[in-house]
Amino acid sequence: MNGLLSLLILLPTAGALAILFLPREKTGPIKALATAVAGLTFFASLPLWFARGFRESAGFLFREDLSWIPSLGVRYSLGVDGIAALLILLTTLLSVISIYASYTAVKTREKEYYIFLLLLETGMIGVFCALDFFLFYVFWEVMLVPMYFLIGVWGGPRKLYAAIKFFLYTLFGSVIMLVGIIALYFFNTTGFLWWKGLGNAPTFDILHFHAIAPQIPADLQLWLFWAFFLGFAIKVPMFPFHTWLPDAHVEAPTAGSVILAGVLLKMGTYGFLRFSLPIFPSAASTRWVQLTVVVLAIVGILYGSLVAMVQKDIKKLVAYSSVAHLGFVMLGFFALNNAGMQGGVLQSINHGLSTGGLFLLVGIIYERRHTRQIADFGGLSQVMPIYATLFMIIALASLGLPLLNGFVGEFTILVGAFLADWKWALFAGVGVILGAAYLLWLYQRVFFGELKHEENKGLQDVNLREVLTLAPLIVCCVWIGVYPKPFFAMTAPASAKIVAALDAAKGAPPALSAALSAAPAAPVPSATAVLPAAAALPEAAPRGN
Amino acid sequence: MALPFPLSDLLVILPELILSELALGILLWAAVVKRERERALAWASLASLAIAAALLPVAASFAGELPRSAFGGMIALDGFSLFFKALTLLAAAVTILFSLRFVGTSPYPGGEYYALLLLTTVGMMFMASGTHLVSIYVALELMALSQYVLAGYFKQETKSVEAAAKYFVLGAFSSGVLLYGLSLVYGATGTLSLGGVSAALEAAPRSTLLMVGVVLVACGMLFKVASAPFHVWAPDVYEGAPTPVSAFFAVGPKLAAYAIFARIFFDGFGPRSDDWAPVLAASAALTMVVGNVGALMQTNVKRLLGYSSIGHAGYALLGLLAYRAGGAAGQPEAFGLWAILFYLTAYLLMTFGAFGLVVLLEAKGYATESVDDFNGLWKRNPLAAGAMVVFLLSLAGIPPTAGFVGKYLLFSAALKAGWPALVVLGVLMSAVSLFYYFRIVRAMYLVDGEGEVRWREEPAVAVAVGLCFAGTLAFGVLPQPLIALAKSCLLP
């Protein structure tokens, strides 16, 4: 089905343009139209789920390719693999949910609000579809503008500060990445500085760069890896680039936080999967590079969890929990093996579902009480039993209870980390325990105990619309928790391809490690060849120490 | 009496000739026209610019094979000069549209204003064509002298007069420096034609005399494009001059200055690029930092745009540094040069757009001054606020705007030419620039409360801004036609 991706990109923009021509007072039709457009986009994206090609090969489907700026070799080139398809589905789902959830939360300047949300959706889908570096960068940047307005106009008391901080942090990372993109472009053609180029025709085709990855010299790979790393690590965000996140999350309106946590952070992790790992495999699998990233990821897990524990504001607590969750994702990726990669991708989705859900829940209580301080609550389960139940489910999903999605993701990541180095898994395991601690403690303080505050006694329980926004998330959480196979199946070929590229760069025979499926990515490159060999031939001489 | 040049040489400068005649005609007409009929002068000036623009292709076709040299190598007509001439004519036309009411409601007669604007345009057109250091200098002075007067045109306004005085003193000083540098170059090479200088430089050994001459010429040029450390006049002049004139100063003279900068340094001093490149590189780095950091603290919109234009001069210098980058071995493609051509076009569109909105929105009877005047503009005039956002995004280099593509081209050219540190500095500074550009966005959309600005009913300015808006977006989404055009208009 050709043109599907363009349709997904254009639909929200078309909706935004239509809203532009509605009179500002008619908020009813504006909301209805925005929801309808987002819903339509979601249904239009469903073919991505049912496409069988993703489960069979790592190739890119739904390709579109048009000439755009021939002088530079820029093309309007779209296509998705299983990972991108899953992220697009997450995007369209969270978009419609966050638009539907904003009906009562946003009471000023509704028209612009829904326009910006729809434009944001266009940008996000575009990022996941683009197979041309230039196009990717355009979407990557364009998306910052509506988010800036969402935080800055409809945000909390410190919105002005949070909005520009978000924009500047991301921009600093992206412009460095842009330099990396330019350098890569020149390397592919005639070369630049002291790197002699490959002499190919000028192109920004991402798949072409995947193909020439082995030809990129190791030192250039290192430079470019770090240039891209900066762009993506700020977006993820990894410790120590995370400081924009709590501000942006706390000040953003509920829908903004949901989108921010659910999708925008995933662009960073997606960037690692699509660019950093496959295009610079030898840099990524260099021992000290891998160690640096893993250490940052583990620090992020532990630091994020510990800081979350001491928060007094529920939303800020959830924001810091994001830092920890994304640390897990990065740990999974940089275990550089199949289990870690698969777990990381799944955990990206899980985080979008459960953290998105938590932000929705925080928004619901904030709308009623206009406070998010933990100390202002207590005993809420007596007056809002349904709300308490929903919160419990999502919180358990987030902290990784078996049979809910978080468990599957974290467990798979821990397996991957363990195969790479048992110490990494040990530290990350501590993070899992901390995650349970801060969420359960939060739950205890907010929902149990006695109703101390007079204002809380008359609180309304959730209404049907609010349940409807949460229901799809909970269904997905349970689905992934009980039967994750379709999700793994969808991302397996794509992540296996990335791991194969990494293994090839390390010098291990790719065929063998693919056969072993979750082949241990041995920490020391020289040992890589030995480990699988030792597994295959028991009589081989053991490694020296 | 025989002319010292073939008569057909006059056809090469036909647009300039006709435009000067028309400018003088308008000056004469201004002496007799009634005050309330002055608007006719503006339309006549616009028509003159249109005639000159229409004559450009005529001149090109009469000149035959391009590049065509005329007047014994003083003037050349080539794609490069045609591109710049078209841009200057556009800049002058937009400035006239901006000025209509501004001059009309001021207590000063408008006739000389339009005549001076046309004459300065003639100067800029000659600058684009000059291939001889003397013709370049004369054209430069024609442009500059008209501008000094324009800067102080509202002679009762203290600020305006102060701006003019500053501009004049510093401008005259820098012209002196430039001239002195040219004389040293003449002393070292024995010729003033760019081709001759280039040939002499290839042959002659390196000499102190020549080095000093080249550096002094560079200093003079850096002053003209408002690059650090010769930039201090720019914010003061932009703030003090009448707003349409500031807009013109931020664009027109810079375009022409970049044209002669490129021509002198590539065609003339090209063989010695290893010597002058470090000077330009240092200035580019300093300019990007000074312009963008200086803009951070500005609360006056015109000063803010003034500092931002300094920052942009720094980016454009990257293109000059990279002029020969991009081709295969031995086949220079002049990537840097066409990047500059694209970038300057984008710069014209977005700078005029932003200044145009400043003209269009008035506070307390004057053009907007303070950033706070923009507070809450989205509510009263969503269209103007939206257009301003696009211009500011373009200035900051965020896609999908012409400013992004332009910056992208400049930075790629510089990286290709081997200036990675400057490129990294440039992209970081362009991220910094977002902060101050978005102070205006913040005022328009995020800050509650009411600013002072009112929408001025002025269709001419609105049309000009609309054109800039369309261009900024169109060349951002579909840059290919402009890139192709720029690539076909390089130095021979």
What gap, in angstroms, lies between the N and C termini of chain B? 34 Å
Oligomer: heterodimer
- Please bin the fraction of helical residues of chain B: over 70%
The succession of helices and strands of chain A, N to C, reads: HHHEEHHHHHEEHHHHHHHHHHHHHHHHH
The backbone outline of chain A, from C-alpha atoms, is: globular
Q: How are strands sequenced across the largest beta sheet of chain B?
A: 4-3-5
Radius of gyration of chain A: 23 Å
Number of alpha- plus pi-helical segments of chain B:
20
Beta-strand percent range of chain B? under 5%
Would you write up a description of this structure?
The complex is a heterodimer of chains A (545) and B (492). Chain A is mainly alpha-helical and 545 residues long. Chain A has a domain of 205 residues. Chain A is 72% helix and 4% strand. Chain A contains 25 helices and 4 strands. Chain A has a two-stranded antiparallel sheet. Chain A has a two-stranded antiparallel sheet with strand order 3-4. In chain A, helix 7 packs antiparallel against helix 8 and helix 15 packs across helix 19. The longest helix of chain A has 32 residues. The C terminus of chain A is likely disordered. Chain B folds into 2 domains: 188 residues, no CATH class; 220 residues, no CATH class. Chain B contains 20 helices and 5 strands. Chain B has a 3-stranded antiparallel beta sheet with strand order 4-3-5. Chain B has a two-stranded antiparallel sheet with strand order 1-2.
Please outline the helices and strands.
The complex is a heterodimer of chains A (545) and B (492).
Chain A: H1 4-20, H2 27-50, H3 53-56, E1 61-69, E2 74-80, H4 82-101, H5 110-129, H6 133-142, H7 144-154, H8 159-188, E3 191-192, E4 195-196, H9 206-212, H10 218-235, H11 244-251, H12 254-279, H13 281-284, H14 287-309, H15 314-334, H16 338-369, H17 380-383, H18 385-399, H19 405-420, H20 422-447, H21 464-482, H22 485-506, H23 510-515, H24 525-528, H25 530-536
Antiparallel strand pairs in A: 1-2, 3-4
Helix pairs in contact in A: 1-2, 1-5, 2-4, 2-5, 4-5, 4-12, 4-16, 4-21, 5-6, 5-7, 5-12, 6-8, 7-8, 8-10, 8-11, 10-12, 11-15, 12-15, 12-16, 14-15, 14-20, 15-16, 15-19, 15-20, 16-18, 16-19, 16-21, 16-22, 18-20, 18-21, 19-20, 19-21
Chain B: H1 9-12, H2 14-32, H3 39-63, E1 68-70, E2 75-77, H4 79-104, H5 111-129, H6 133-151, H7 158-189, H8 194-203, H9 208-224, H10 233-240, H11 243-268, H12 273-296, H13 301-321, H14 335-360, E3 361-363, E4 366-367, H15 377-380, H16 382-396, H17 402-416, H18 420-446, E5 454-455, H19 459-477, H20 480-487
Antiparallel strand pairs in B: 1-2, 3-4, 3-5
Helix pairs in contact in B: 2-3, 2-5, 3-4, 3-5, 4-5, 4-11, 4-14, 4-19, 5-6, 5-11, 6-7, 6-11, 7-9, 7-10, 8-11, 9-12, 10-11, 10-13, 11-13, 11-14, 12-13, 12-18, 13-14, 13-17, 13-18, 14-16, 14-17, 14-19, 14-20, 16-18, 16-19, 17-18, 17-19
